[in-house]
Amino acid sequence: MDKKEEIKHKVTIEDRKLMVVTGVQKVKSFDTKEIIMDTYKGGLVIKGNNLGIKNLNLTETEVEIEGQIDIVNYPTARSSDSASKSVWERIFK
Fold this sequence. Notes:
It contains two helices and six strands. By secondary structure, the chain is an alpha+beta fold.
């Protein structure tokens, strides 16, 4: 069994204001409305308002997020056509 299979991924949300995520490899980007990260089980996107990273401990593969949590999404792999459509959707929303 390799290290990736040994690390557990867990998401805990308390009152939609505090979120703890384990099994995090890296935080790719974040701002007050969206946090994008890679976990050992795939990508993870959190959307909301006034989001912030309260604690980041990549040694323990854990991230604490605070703010108004509205959406938790595990994106799936897309073809290049649907990926470019997403870009256009973002520009013209």
